[in-house]
Amino acid sequence: MDYRTVPTTCTYCGCGCNFFLEVLDGRIIGTIPSKSGPANQGKLCIKGWHVHQFVQSPERLTRPLLRKNGNLSEVSWDEALDYTASRLKEITSAHGSDSAGFFASAKLTNEENYLIQKFARAAVGTNNVDHCARL
Asked: Which end of the chain, C or N, has fewer beta carbons within 10 A?
């Protein structure tokens, strides 16, 4: 039996709460709040206590899907990215950069969410950015 704890930062909001993920034989089994975390000082909200559960959910998408002939089909990352980039170019060329919007996720790190808004503003030219986390 291999048990360990892995320090990390909660992905649900921008507070930056620290905790440890409990890992048993390569599977995440629980969350332990960090008493030395400056943002949370050993406490967690209900989302923080259960943040580990989505990682191994059987409903979690792990491969890109594209709709072909009305059905979702697994495709390579290259095909999915090429399709997304070409459609984004087509839409913004035809309707302007503000025709695109970006919706970030609480299941990403703050750094990844920052990159999404930076891409939206600097590369695409829109301020249409939102995020699903609400405190």
From this structure: N
Is 80 exceeded by the pLDDT of residue 79? yes
DSSP tally for the chain: helices H, then strands E? 3, 7
Query: How many whole angstroms separate alpha carbon 123 and alpha carbon 85?
Result: 12
133 band by pLDDT with thresholds 50, 70 and 90 = low
Domain co-membership, 125 together with 111: yes
Give the whole-angstrom CA distance, residue 131 versus residue 122.
Answer: 18
Smallest CA-to-CA distance from 35 within 5, 2, 3 is with: 5
Nearest in space to 104 (alpha carbons), one of 134, 133, 126, 82: 133
Checking if the pLDDT of 105 tops 90, the result is no
Q: Are 12 and 55 in contact (CB under 8 A)?
A: no
pTM: 0.66
